[in-house]
Specification:
single chain; alpha/beta; Rossmann fold; two-stranded antiparallel sheet; about 45% helix
């Protein structure tokens, strides 16, 4: 398929908003909370990754549209794919997205940068794809640092989307004040912001000390099961009782010198992010 879809795609069954990241910043939680709103339809599969290079882009627009075919009369339709804010690896994502859903509203969850890197590292260790120490990994692999350069990611989208179409929220605010944060998110995507959701099942927004069994992961790979899981807190509760168990967290230590160097490297980006958001990120200890 050509890299750019038809100039005027039928947007009637395409997303009206997209959660674009960041990785290990609470996108699974916000996806589930969005799906609880009666006027919102979320894709049954959380990470569609449609706009990522050779992954699902070649499947074509008809495949992407099919992911929202059951939206019915939902006011807002959305998906959540954290890889959309890895433009350092996939620079054409914003361009592709704008060619398909130019009027979409974007939601970007950002987390204190070092904490996000640490959570990403633990995720990859538990996934079996990372075998180095945390310090060796962050010094050798730019993906850790670049995924925490939030303003760099935003600038890539500002080439194609107006500023008012991009909502930036922090993981820390989502965890500390979920109702107020979700009200802001609902208003951004054009649905009733006064709707109250049950956040009790997802209050640990960024837990990394739980592990799902292989059976659970296979079940969640089935779109009907994933859709049912998103729509029923009772099923989620049963799923967790049967398939989720505590695990020891992998060590993720940094020398003070390395941590200081990382923070210094990120400082200009974080200052620019604060300027964009119009406030100091005090929840990050700044």
């Amino acid at each position: 398929m050509a890299d750019v879809p038809p100039a005027k795609p039928d947007t009637s069954a395409l997303p009206t908003f997209i959660v674009i990241g960041a990785m290990k910043a609470g996108t699974t939680t916000i996806h589930a909370w969005l799906d609880e709103h009666p006027d919102v339809f979320m894709s049954a599969e959380k990470e569609l990754d449609f706009f990522v290079d050779a992954w699902r882009w070649p499947r074509g627009l008809d495949w992407y549209r099919l992911q929202f075919a059951d939206a019915g009369d939902a006011i807002a339709r959305g998906e959540s794919s954290p890889d959309y804010t890895k433009t350092h690896n996939h620079p054409r994502i914003p361009e592709r997205m704008a060619s398909v859903v130019p009027r979409a509203r974007l939601i970007y969850l950002v987390r204190e940068p070092i904490a996000r890197m640490r959570s990403m590292y633990r995720h990859l260790v538990l996934d079996g794809t990372e075998h180095r120490s945390f310090e060796d990994a962050v010094l050798a692999d730019d993906d850790y640092l670049e995924t925490s350069r939030y303003m760099r990611q935003i600038r890539a989208y500002l080439e194609f989307y107006d500023r008012d179409r991009i909502l930036v929220e922090t993981t820390e605010r989502l965890a500390a004040d979920p109702h107020e944060t979700m009200a802001t998110v609902f208003e951004h995507i054009g649905v009733d912001p006064t709707h109250t959701i049950d956040v009790s099942e997802h209050h640990n927004v960024t837990r990394t000390d739980l592990e799902e069994s292989p059976t659970a992961l296979r079940l969640k790979g089935l779109s009907p099961y994933w859709a049912a899981l998103n729509r029923s807190w009772r099923l989620r509760e049963m799923h967790d009782r049967l398939f989720v168990r505590p695990i020891p967290l992998p060590a993720a230590d940094l020398s003070q010198g390395t941590e200081d160097a990382l923070r210094l490297s990120l400082e200009d980006d974080t200052l620019a992010l604060e300027e964009l958001m119009g406030r100091r990120l005090t929840e990050w200890g700044r």
